[in-house]
Model the fold of this input.
Amino acid sequence: MRCCERQGGRSLQQAAKFQKFHAEAYSKQLHQVQPLPGARELLKFLTKEGVPWAIATSGRIGVARHGLDTLAVPSSVPIITRD
Done:
C-alpha cells in the first residue's frame, strides 16, 4: 500500500505543478484572448428573447473569469467550471 500512496501523492503533486504552470502561462497570454465573432451578440439575443442559456468550461473560474467578463456574462447566468 505504501507504494501506491507514494505514487498517488506524486501524481497529485505533478498535477498541482501543471495547473500552476498552465495558469501562469495563460495569464501571460490573457490580453490576446478574445470572444469569437458574434458571441456577444448571440448571448444578448438569447437573453432578449428569453432563451435560457449557461456557460460551461473545463477551466477553473479564476482562469475563465476574463473570458466571462469580456462576454459581459450577467451574474444571473449559470456557470459550470472545473471547480
